[in-house]
Amino acid sequence: MKRILTLILFTMTATTFAFGQCSDADRQKLEAWDKSLGDAAQRGDQAFLQNAYTDDFRNLSPSGVMLTKAQVVENALRDFERAKANPQAAPRYDYYDITCTPNTAVISHRVVATTKQPDGKELTQHARAVHFMEKRSGNWMMVGTAGHPLGDAAQLLYMEREWNDAMKNRDAAWFERNYADDATDVISRTGALLTKAEAVADVRNGKDKINSNELSDTNVRVAGDTAIVTGVNHVKGSDEKGQAYERRVRFTDVFVKRDGRWQVLATQGTRIQ
């Protein structure tokens, strides 16, 4: 009897686990749906917005106020009209984390919104949004959402992920934008000390290829307008001769906040494997 119960529980657990998995295709469709919702708000598409939310939809705003479907749609249309007189860049949605079953889904992602202030300077705000979805009459609809602003520590951890992506994609523009003009970069492979210009050139002209890079053991300390991030970066790739390599580098990154945004001031890595 005990063995039968064990088998039943195992089967139930395995079935639940299987249904809880999203295929890559499922995730791509849900991510595309979410981005299309953001686009609809930007262009004031009332019909799309009305069909995207369930009638019992609720939105817990960062301020703690609970909003209904009607209020969310009304706010989106009001923002669209206001933006006509003062156009702003569309928010960026990235770093998605999506789980789903055949009829339910949870979508979480970062939101980066940059607006131009009256003095001409740009203000960038970071937040994290969580959306709860249900499939009704065969269509995905949003039944609830919540969001919260990201503090400095969370912003810096996302910046580390951006950094890894920029290295993998050889995105020299990221380094131009996010390295302080007086930044220094100590290369873990050679110990060479690079200026910002040299670091940007190294990214742009390097011949090695990164297949994967994963962060672990990260820690963030913030003191006013200065921050230190430590961690381990596990990198797999091939060098300029096509030889495969695998490295684990313990790093220390120093950031400084200037003009309201974090920039890399210094970085140093030590190979540990």
How does this model look, in words?
The protein folds into 2 domains: 21-149, Nuclear Transport Factor 2, Chain: A (Roll); 152-271, Nuclear Transport Factor 2, Chain: A, CATH 3.10.450. Helix content is 35%, strand content 45%. The chain contains 7 helices and 12 strands. The chain has helices at 2-19, 24-42, 46-52, 69-85, 152-169, 172-178, 196-205, and strands at 53-60, 66-68, 92-100, 104-116, 122-136, 139-149, 179-186, 193-195, 209-223, 226-238, 244-258, 261-271. A 6-stranded mixed β-sheet has the order 2-1-6-5-4-3. A hairpin with a 2-residue loop joins β5 (122-136) and β6 (139-149). α6 (172-178) runs antiparallel to α7.
Shape: globular
Helix proportion of residues, in percent? 25-40%
Task: Indicate how many domains the architecture comprises.
Answer: 2
Strand order of the largest sheet: 2-1-6-5-4-3
Beta strand %: over 45%
Number of beta-strand segments: 12
Order of helices and strands: HHHEEHEEEEHHEEHEEEE
CATH class of the largest domain reads Alpha Beta
For the sheet with most strands, the description reads: 6 strands, mixed
Mean pLDDT, to the nearest integer, reads 90
User: What are the segments in which pLDDT stays under 50 over at least 5 consecutive residues?
Assistant: 1-19
Radius of gyration: 23 Å
Distance between the termini: 51 Å
In DSSP terms (H or I, runs of 4 or more residues), the helix count works out at: 7
* SS content category: alpha+beta
